[in-house]
Design brief:
Blueprint (H helix, E strand, L loop, with lengths): L15 H11 L7 H13 L4 E5 L2 H11 L7 E5 L5 H9 L2 E5 L21 E4 L11 H11 L2 E5 L7 E2 L2 E2 L6 E5 L12 E5 L2 H11 L22 H12 L1 H19 L5 E3 L6 E2 L6 E4 L8 H10 L5 E2 L17 H9 E3 L8 H15 L1
Bound molecules: pyridoxal-5'-phosphate.
């Protein structure tokens, strides 16, 4: 029997256990502790950002970003229709309305040419998502933001280490947010980080993250805040992961290249294109199973892979087809990509033999 290949598996064989053990032995298991500060400093340095504020997850980092910029009732925020649901939900949490824009056929990221038609007086921000590790065309986003005086919050939850125009994603707009969920490029179990170069934003986010408590007056709360703190235990894992991020990214690149070369010999596969200005990272290797030429559908392929012990996952549903955001507006590109897209196993501990086995099963199934 072939071994089971999971879609994503954290790689925790560095100093993770040592650092977590230290937290337990010393009792520093909550959100006060040296690893939180270290993780914030080291991750923001890795991203070439001035400030990093660790949060309980990527969703809470995004929520704090919006709150901190004063986005709320009556406001609108531009969001891609094709993303993980959290990107839209955080806008809804604030009382503002997510306004959806279709994605591009080639990179699957927000179609920047379709943004301006959605901007009205109430629009306050653009929330682009660097999907699957591929940076959004940020020059166009910044140009539109400047023209209409909008904030830019980058959802970089899937793209640690990716660059656009030589700049790390997350540092191009006003705020960048990352997730460290178990399947992400680096993980803290659950966890997130908000990065920014703006001192005022950083100071306000720190207060909001901690119940709105004044920095210099314990238990005085000048505003309503949240408990969105990261624990020292999580941060200890994060510090250990960060020690190996270059190695992890390199391994991901090798996985990406091997999939590309083996899959390029098969008909019926459509690849994600890359923006010329971007240096993408391979968060989760993803392709489209061309419904016009493949022998079986994406959904059938997922079943066939599962039967032979290979995990995979379908793309996100376009947000407008799900009950909380149901709308009759059409987003043809996202609707088509969503039906055909599949993410393949992408853990750093995959061997070339595993990848060959996955590709040969795909070939046997779709050709
Ligand atoms: C694009 C995107 N945005 C936001 C999130 C939310 O991150 P978290 O799961 O850490 O809350 C994720 C994570 O899965 C994501 O992929």
């Amino acid at each position: 029997m072939n071994k089971f290949i999971p879609i994503a598996e954290p790689c925790l064989n560095g100093n993770e256990l040592k650092y977590v053990t230290e937290c337990i032995k010393t009792g520093w298991i909550s959100s006060t502790g040296s690893y939180v500060i270290r993780f914030e400093e080291e991750f923001s340095k890795f991203c070439q950002a001035t400030y990093g504020i660790a949060c309980s997850n990527g969703t809470t980092a995004l929520h704090l970003a919006l709150i901190c910029l004063g986005i709320g009732n009556e406001d609108e925020v531009i969001v891609p229709i094709f993303t993980f649901i959290a990107t839209a939900n955080v806008v809804t949490y604030t009382g503002a309305k997510p306004i959806f824009v279709d994605c591009r056929k080639d990179t699957w990221n927000i179609d920047t040419e379709k943004i301006e038609e959605k901007i009205i007086e109430k629009t306050k921000a653009i929330l682009p998502v660097h999907l699957y590790g591929e940076p959004v065309d940020m020059d166009s986003i910044l140009k539109i933001a400047k023209k209409y005086n909008l904030y830019v919050i980058e959802d970089a939850c899937e793209s640690h280490g990716a660059k656009y125009n030589g700049k790390m994603v997350g540092t191009i707009g006003n705020i960048g947010c990352f997730s460290f969920y178990g399947n992400k490029i680096i993980t803290t179990g659950e966890g997130g980080m908000l990065i920014t170069n703006d001192e005022k934003i950083a100071e306000k986010v720190k207060v909001l993250r901690d119940h709105g408590m004044a920095k210099d007056k314990k238990y005085f709360h000048p505003m309503i805040g949240y408990n969105y703190r990261m624990t020292n235990l999580q941060a200890a894992v994060g510090v250990a992961q960060l020690e190996r991020i270059d190695e992890i990214l390199q391994k991901k690149k090798e996985i990406n290249n091997l999939y590309n070369s083996l899959l390029s010999e098969i008909d019926g596969i459509i690849f994600q294109s890359h923006n010329k200005k971007s240096e993408s990272v391979c968060w989760m290797y993803s392709v489209l199973i061309d419904e016009k030429t493949a022998k079986i559908s994406r959904d059938e392929l997922i079943i066939r892979l599962k039967e032979s012990g290979i995990d995979s996952r379908p793309f996100f549903y376009p947000i407008h087809i799900m009950p909380p955001y149901k709308s009759s507006e059409r987003f043809p590109v996202a609707e088509s990509i969503s039906k055909q897209g599949i993410s393949l196993p992408s853990s750093v501990n995959l061997t070339p033999k595993d990848i060959e086995r996955i590709v040969s099963k795909i070939k046997e199934s779709i050709c």
